[in-house]
Amino acid sequence: MKKIEAVIRHFKLEDVKNALNEQGVAGMTITEVRGFGRQKGHTETYRGTEYAVDFVPKVKIEIAAADDHAQAIIDTIIKAAQTGQIGDGKIFVSELSESIRIRTGETGSEAL
After folding, report:
1. Helix extents (H) in 1-112
2. 62: left (phi > 0), else alpha (psi -120 to 50), else beta?
3. Which domain holds residue 20?
4. Whole-prediction pTM value?
5. CATH of the domain at 66
6. Domain count, the chain
């Protein structure tokens, strides 16, 4: 099993969610996050005064997937979230050693 974490732009969330639903992804967790990478934030003007926004708001999507579905999910996220500009986000993939459905006690891939 794999845990896929994707940090994307806010306005791409619906596109990614819809594409993943079409792909058959049954569930995901969404978290509003802030951070920076190569963008290094940006400046905004409020009432004539410029100020720096060091942490850019993003959305983090977390998905637990079976090994044989992980690459298709990753490709779907890339296709739906990509704008071609700096700040599109990142995807992190890690091994998931165990998953347990609390309601039934199912473990492993059956719990997904």
Report:
1. 13-23, 67-81
2. beta
3. 2-101
4. 0.85
5. 3.30.70.120
6. 1
Sign of CA dihedral 99, 103, 105, 108: negative
How far apart are the C-alpha atoms of 70 and 1, rounded to whole Å?
8
- pLDDT, tens only, 11-51: 999 999 999 999 999 899 999 999 877 766 666 677 777 76
- Name residue, tokens 């306005």: 11
- 106 lies in some domain: no
Say how far apart CA 1 and CA 86 lie, in whole Å.
30
Catalogue the E-assigned strands of the chain.
2-8, 29-35, 42-46, 49-53, 56-65, 89-95
